[in-house]
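User: Fold this; tokens only.

Assistant: Input:
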Amino acid sequence: MPLLPRRFERIKAVLNCRMADLTVLIEHVEKPHNISAILRSCDAVGVLEAHTVTIDGTTPTFNSTAQGSQKWVTLKEHKNIGYAVEELKKMNFKLYGTHLNENSRDYRECDFTGPTAFVLGAEKWGLSDSAKELMDEEIFIPMRGMVQSLNVSVAAAILLFEALRQRQEKQIIPKNGEGIPKELYDQIIFEWSYPEVAEWCKREGKKYPRLNQKGEIIDSLPRTTKLRC
């Protein structure tokens, strides 16, 4: 089915608000419901990409809670917490680990307007000792009840929306795609618009075709591939 102009405009409108400098890293979060809910919050806030470290390299799974958000927020897998942190720090992220101790700061006292990565641990045990040692800062969400922690997906949502609030207050929320490097923007908008053609290009080792302002492919394609459009 051809890509309708209103569909392309919707894709552009969402991508134009995405932020490459806000992310989450989840460590050993295995329940599909929680992973799905976290990605749904990432999509709602405008996170471009999320990160995960799973137990024994297992592939994360999703359920209906995601509402398809896994198609719009890439979940990048890492083999261990050390590699994940190293990659994020190379990208100039400041890592905020959710952990309650005497040195932890109330999340509302922190500045999340710069490159920010929220690091959250397993549903039952929280962050591993290895992860805690690698954090730039440890933060907590104040509790008033008997239970001293939130569900990991709820915690992620609270932190992400606080980062969004702070950025809105400073008027630094992207509106026209400025939150993503241009080359990456062009890559993602094609993948979102023509996922099957994008997969064909990857298999064949070919560059993505160019799009015009209406989202139409303007480069020639094999007939069988055009039928995927």
